[in-house]
């Protein structure tokens, strides 16, 4: 369980069931209200530079309409308590917590039974840290609300949160933000960027979401030391890029995904490039899939092991113009006579079964079956059926790349 933030040194004690809004309206900048365990009626609005604190069993409960807690003043602070519910309307963005104040702070808050969790809109310098947001968990992912959303927000932090059973953690039209050390489980998009530039995604754990991280129409995204696991099913993607450039992904673990990395027309703009270094692609159906993205992408010192297919190019093309250097592949059959750790012959990926699946995606149904295994064997043994190369790494590693994810910790 996430820790409750410390009680402010000087604050006004508030008894359970008290109407909180009149006290907030009367508060001055720098004041704090500290709630006792119990239930308090919402909605409430926290003014500028006022703090509302409570332990986890101090519950601000929705009236059943609209947003439950609003932070609209600059420097407003919400700490520790539980926000229970919101109105039920998607069109008016009914939320547990709605932040508009510059420099506002939301920490250690538990959110439950709300349409939207924590919404941050048209502001900057906001901190959303150490909260536990539990979505509806409904069977239709699209009909859940977003757990955490940044909209037209910049220079803000989303850190150390636990998100469960929601829809998305969204960063839209928002630049210069950091998403760090969050755990996102059982949603649609673990984190979804759209038209958002120069953001950092570090040390997060994404598990059993439909998609781990998806970057759309964005530039300058950096992803480091994230775990992207269990994105399975027909649409399962660990990390996806669409029409995005100058993306750097390094030291990430992409494990047990239908597709580890999906590149769709990325990079888009001339002069942009994407770099993937020291990432681990493990236990996936396909490590990397290219769709109109065979140029200005570089793969250096990555590890491809225990995947059904290492790389696939949709439409049956190749990735020979992609930069491949120093990667390790578990199906490399070369040698290292000078013992420098680098293969003396290039690694070339040639797969008749992979080529067929790339041309006819419905054949992916037969992955792991004797049928495709025989097709693969024919392509390796019979020159008549030998497929063209898909990629070439001139300096493949001989030994597996060591996994060096650092422990997650707050700064």
Assigned CATH superfamily: Single-stranded right-handed beta-helix, Pectin lyase-like
Structural category: mainly beta
What Rg, in angstroms, do the CA atoms define?
25 Å
Query: What is the helical fraction, as a range of percent?
Result: under 10%
Give the rounded overall mean pLDDT.
92
Number of domains: 1
Assign the CATH class. Answer: Mainly Beta
* Poorly predicted ranges: none
The helix count comes to 3
Assembly type of the chains comes to: single chain
Number of strands: 41
Can you offer a commentary on this structure?
- The model has no long low-confidence stretch (mean pLDDT 92).
- This protein has a single domain, classed as 3 Solenoid (Pectate Lyase C-like), CATH 2.160.20.10.
- The two termini are 19 Å apart.
- Helix 1 (20-26) links the parallel strand 1 and strand 2.
- With 411 residues, the chain is mainly β.
- The protein is built from 3 helices and 41 strands.
- Strands 1-2-5-8-11-14-17-20-23-26-29-32-35-38 form a 14-stranded parallel β-sheet, with helices on one face. It has a 13-stranded parallel β-sheet with strand order 3-6-9-12-15-18-21-24-27-30-33-36-39, with no helix packed on it. Strands 4-7-10-13-16-19-22-25-28-31-34-37 form a 12-stranded parallel β-sheet.
- This is Nitrous oxide reductase family maturation protein NosD.
- Residues 144-325 form the Periplasmic copper-binding protein NosD beta helix domain.
Fill in the keyword field for this structure.
single chain, 38% strand, 411 residues, Pectate Lyase C-like, 14-stranded parallel beta sheet, 3 helices
């Amino acid at each position: 369980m996430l820790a409750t933030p410390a009680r402010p040194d000087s604050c006004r004690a508030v008894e359970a069931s008290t109407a909180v809004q009149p006290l907030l309206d009367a508060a001055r900048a720098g004041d704090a209200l500290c709630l006792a365990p119990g239930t308090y009626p919402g909605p409430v609005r926290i003014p500028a530079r006022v703090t509302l604190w409570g332990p986890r069993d101090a519950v601000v409960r929705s009236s059943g309409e609209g947003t439950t807690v609003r932070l609209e003043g600059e420097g407003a602070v919400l700490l520790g308590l539980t926000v229970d519910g919101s109105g039920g309307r998607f069109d008016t963005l009914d939320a547990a917590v709605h932040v508009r104040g510059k420099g506002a702070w939301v920490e250690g808050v538990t959110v439950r039974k709300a349409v939207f969790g924590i919404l941050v809109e048209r502001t900057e310098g906001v901190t959303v840290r150490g909260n536990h947001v539990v979505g509806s968990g409904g069977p239709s992912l699209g009909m859940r609300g977003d757990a955490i959303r940044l909209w037209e927000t910049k220079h803000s932090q989303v850190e150390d949160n636990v998100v469960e059973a929601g829809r998305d953690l969204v960063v839209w039209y928002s630049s210069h933000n950091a998403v760090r050390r969050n755990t996102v489980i059982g949603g649609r998009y673990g984190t979804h960027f759209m038209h958002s530039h120069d953001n950092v995604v570090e040390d997060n754990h994404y598990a059993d979401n439909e998609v781990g991280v998806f970057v759309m129409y964005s530039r300058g995204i950096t992803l480091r030391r994230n775990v992207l696991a269990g994105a399975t099913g027909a649409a399962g993607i660990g990390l996806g890029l669409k029409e995005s450039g100058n993306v750097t992904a390094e030291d990430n673990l992409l494990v047990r995904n239908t597709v580890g990395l999906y590149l769709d027309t990325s990079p888009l703009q001339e002069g942009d490039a994407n770099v993937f270094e020291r990432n681990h692609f493990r236990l996936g159906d396909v490590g990397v899939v290219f769709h109109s993205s065979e140029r200005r992408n570089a793969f250096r010192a990555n590890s491809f092991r225990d995947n059904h297919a290492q790389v696939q190019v949709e439409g049956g093309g190749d990735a020979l113009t992609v930069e491949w250097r120093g990667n390790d592949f578990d199906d490399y059959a070369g040698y290292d006579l000078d013992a420098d750790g680098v293969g003396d012959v290039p690694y070339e990926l040639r797969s008749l079964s992979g080529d067929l699946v790339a041309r006819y995606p419905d054949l992916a149904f037969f992955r792991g079956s004797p049928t495709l295994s025989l097709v693969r064997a024919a392509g390796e043994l019979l020159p008549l059926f030998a497929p063209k190369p898909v990629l070439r790494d001139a300096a493949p590693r001989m030994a597996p790349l060591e996994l060096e994810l650092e422990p997650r910790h707050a700064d």
